[in-house]
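Hi P.,

Sorry for the delay on this. The queue was packed all week, but I finally got your sequence through. Input first:
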Amino acid sequence: MQLRTVLIAALIGSATAVSAAPAHAGPPATGMLVTAARQPDAVLAQARTEARVDAFFRDYRQAVLRRGGRPRAVRIKYLTARLNKRLDHWAERHGADPVFHARKVPGQWSVRYEGTAAAYSTVVLTERWGSGAVRELVFQVRLPDLRIMDLEDPA
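Then the structure:
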């Protein structure tokens, strides 16, 4: 209990120091306060799952563009077998890439953490094409092994 009191006092002292600091000194200390105030497990889950979805999408995109690896091998590395099977069926029905949910490769993308529930986290990936078109895909990442267990196009 004493350690918790010391940590709370340190946070309050840091917050006071940040509010009294000159404007140019604010951003680094403020970022540290926001991180320290969050639950450590939630922060870790957010960072790990965002990074995992981003790495998968980058590696998969490179494989599709024939710049490294094979698309199927990348999917096997990152996705569950059940999701891979579902994506194969989706590709057959729609005649498009099952990960991009499109016939073309997006030029840019970004990831956004949506939250954690039970044993998985949800990450939204926004695809952007040169034409200005945008599509959001929702990924669910299993926390114990960071395998992507679901991918949906809510549109």
